[in-house]
């Protein structure tokens, strides 16, 4: 293993819209950022099809293409974008000591965490099969494709309520599949569910499997087989879209017991800032945002993190 050590002004961990935007800003500020892409280069957007709500793309763009554009823009200003993962960060002193899985050891004056979050799935084999062919974990990304169709949302929290009410405005009918006989969502969100005439809540239901048509690589969802966990009765619903809203897991494991986090693991940043509890470490995008979780809001906080890192470095030089 190489013991080569580099000294960085700015290390960015993660390659979604937050990480790449941070890299664009940090590179333009001459901080010579190094960005490690992580396990899923391009982040969650690479798992969606068409992105139609990111400003600047009037005709829409695919998620992977948009991420390639952001990467190219970051590289244009000299960002050093690398394959691989950061495996450990020693925050006990500055510069922070960092180890990557490519064997590189680095020291970094500032770190921008943009590791995102991962949507939780039920873990069904058939769910995996129809990902991108009807199964999605983002109604705002993919809901538009189900205009006038029947869809299902799984979950009973605020995300499920928000996604179901969003979809109810587009789709003909929305089934909300809830595993218990009550919702976890806040009262105001519940009210919206109950006031939407085209949302049918299926209480005490769990999904057994999804089914659809397969034509080579093309897979098209047609419905779901459910079971009532109280009566054990089976129910089949015919839906074109199946949306998971059973929570996200922020990718913050590297900083457990080091950075302030909420009970789910979202990194807590200072109000109106991306600063964490450790000076010189900033967090942006979905790893610190459980409410909005949009590419454009992630990009916005990415720019904030780079600006704050730049100001932090400048203050050290004073
Ligand atoms: P939550 O953890 O709050 O809710 C997850 C929901 O999914 C629960 O109803 C849970 O059921 C259900 N669930 C979990 N696992 C399964 C499974 N395997 N099968 C079926 N159902 C399952 O996650 P959210 O993403 O909804 O919210 C996360 C946080 O973000 C919350 O604090 C929420 O308030 C906040 N939020 C706020 C918003 C806002 O203010 N506008 C918008 C979105 C989120 P059960 O209840 O039985 O455990």
Question: Quick recap of the structure?
Answer:
This protein is α/β, with parallel strands linked by helices and 318 residues long.
Characterise this structure:
With 318 residues, the chain is of the alpha/beta class. It folds into 2 domains: 5-118 and 248-317, FAD/NAD(P)-binding domain (3-Layer(bba) Sandwich); 121-244, FAD/NAD(P)-binding domain. The chain contains 7 helices and 19 strands. It has helices at residues 17-28, 63-76, 125-129, 139-142, 158-168, 187-194, 295-317; strands at 5-13, 34-36, 50-51, 61-62, 80-82, 86-90, 96-100, 105-113, 117-119, 135-136, 150-154, 173-177, 199-202, 205-215, 218-228, 234-238, 241-244, 248-250, 281-283. Strands 1, 2, 5, 6, 7, 8 and 19 form a 7-stranded mixed β-sheet that branches. It has a 5-stranded parallel β-sheet with strand order 10-17-11-12-13, covered by helices on one side. It has a 3-stranded antiparallel β-sheet with strand order 14-15-16. Helix 6 links the parallel strand 12 and strand 13 (199-202). The chain is elongated. The model has no long low-confidence stretch (mean pLDDT 94). NADPH dihydro-nicotinamide-adenine-dinucleotide phosphate (NDP) binds next to helix 5.
The outline comes out as elongated
Share in helix: 10-25%
Specify the structural class: alpha/beta
Kindly, what is the distance between the CA atoms of the first and last residues, rounded to a whole number of angstroms?
A: 38 Å
What oligomeric arrangement do these chains adopt? single chain
Count of individual domains? 2
Largest sheet, in brief, is: 7 strands, mixed
Order of helices and strands: EHEEEHEEEEEHEHEHEHEEEEEEEH
Q: Which consecutive residue ranges, at least 5 long each, have pLDDT under 50?
A: none
Second CATH tier, the architecture of the largest domain: 3-Layer(bba) Sandwich
Instruction: Provide the residue-averaged pLDDT.
Output: 94
Q: What's the CATH topology label of the largest domain?
A: FAD/NAD(P)-binding domain
What are the distinct ligands in this entry? NADPH dihydro-nicotinamide-adenine-dinucleotide phosphate
Percent strand equals 25-35%
CATH level 4 superfamily of the largest domain? FAD/NAD(P)-binding domain
The beta-strand count equals 19
């Amino acid at each position: 293993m190489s013991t080569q050590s580099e000294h960085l002004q700015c290390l960015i961990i993660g390659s979604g819209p937050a990480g790449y935007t941070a890299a664009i800003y940090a590179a333009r500020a001459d901080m010579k950022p190094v960005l490690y892409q992580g396990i899923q280069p391009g982040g969650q957007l690479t798992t969606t099809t068409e992105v139609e709500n990111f400003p600047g793309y009037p005709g829409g763009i695919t998620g992977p293409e948009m991420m390639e554009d952001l990467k190219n823009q970051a590289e244009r200003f000299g960002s050093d974008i690398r394959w691989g993962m950061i495996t450990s960060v020693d925050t006990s002193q500055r510069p922070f000591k960092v180890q990557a899985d490519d064997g590189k050891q680095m020291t970094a004056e500032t770190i921008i965490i943009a590791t995102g979050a991962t949507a939780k799935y039920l873990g069904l084999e058939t769910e995996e099969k129809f990902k991108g062919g009807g199964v999605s974990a983002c109604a705002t990304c993919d809901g538009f494709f189900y205009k006038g169709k029947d869809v299902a949302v799984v979950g009973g929290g605020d995300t499920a309520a928000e996604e179901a009410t969003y979809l109810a405005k587009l789709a003909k009918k929305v089934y909300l599949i809830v595993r218990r006989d009550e919702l976890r969502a806040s009262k105001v969100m519940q009210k919206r569910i109950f006031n939407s005439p085209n949302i049918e809540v299926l209480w005490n239901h769990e999904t057994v499997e999804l089914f659809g048509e397969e034509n080579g690589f093309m897979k098209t969802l047609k419905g779901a087989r459910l079971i009532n966990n109280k009566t054990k009765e089976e129910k089949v619903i015919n839906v074109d879209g199946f949306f998971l809203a059973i929570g996200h897991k922020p990718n913050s494991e590297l900083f457990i017991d080091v950075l302030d986090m909420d009970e789910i693991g979202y990194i807590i940043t200072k109000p109106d800032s991306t600063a964490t509890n450790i000076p010189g470490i900033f967090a942006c995008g979905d790893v610190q945002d459980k409410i909005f979780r949009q590419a454009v809001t992630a990009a916005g906080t990415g720019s904030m993190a780079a600006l704050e890192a730049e100001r932090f470095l400048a203050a050290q030089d004073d």
